[in-house]
Specification:
Blueprint lengths: L4 E2 L3 H10 L22 E9 L4 H18 L3 E8 L6 E8 L2 H13 L1 H10 L6 E5 L2 E4 L16 E9 L4 H18 L3 E8 L9 E8 L2 H13 L1 H14 L4 E13 L7
Antiparallel strand pairs: 1-5, 2-4, 2-5, 2-6, 3-4, 3-10, 6-8, 7-9, 7-10, 8-9
Amino acid sequence: MTHMSSSLPRREFLVSTVLGSAAVLSGCATSGGSSKGVAAGCYEMRIYHIAPGKQEALLNRFRNHTLKLFARHGITSVGYWMPIDPADQRLHFLLSYPSREAREASWKAFVADPDWQAAYKASEANGPLVSKAENPFYVLTDYSPKPRTGNVSKGGVWEWRTYTAAPGRLGALDARFRDHTQALFAKHGMNNYAYWHKMADQPGADVTLDYFLTHASVEASKKSFAAFGQDPAWKAAREASEKAAGGSLTAPGGVKSLFLKATDFSPAQ
């Protein structure tokens, strides 16, 4: 996956994301109609690269301190996930806000909170917990379900998929998902959780579609995608969309997938 990254030290990164992460603090109005779920105009997927040997310490800080402090300052926790591959030590978490401006105000208050500062200092007494952080900003597509919390995966796995469109073909890719792909995913047992575009000031905003699916298991996902790929309705939709666009809607190597499992403290399970 390609995301905005920072190699700043942990505390400096937190401050920089509050005060200078975006030159354009435009509103993040959702591009679709309202539906039941986590109502928000702006989403942020934060990815923390965990320092060696610090996974449990980091998860404990979130479990015991960070989520409560986020809520205190108007930061909505949607979900927290770790890759199913234990060698992949990256905590992914999705936050939501009414707007980008609200996000900046909430984080400024959060990092200034004495309770956060004390929890941060105590947790890092034996060294930093995070070696690098990434934080792309998103808006929902007009065809996305609203992200929801609760027992979404029913004990299964989450799949974060990133599509890089061929230049000028993101709109055609969206149309195919809107008109065909989502329904065919559901037909073959895949749960459509939500679909996002990067905000306009983010790298790759004009070519990137990110979305979450859930499956009963990794093996179930493989069976579902195999059936989906052989479905005559999918083949017809793909052929028609590529003929209209003049070629593939995705760039070479432009489909990435990562399987994750919700943490025990994640609102979305």
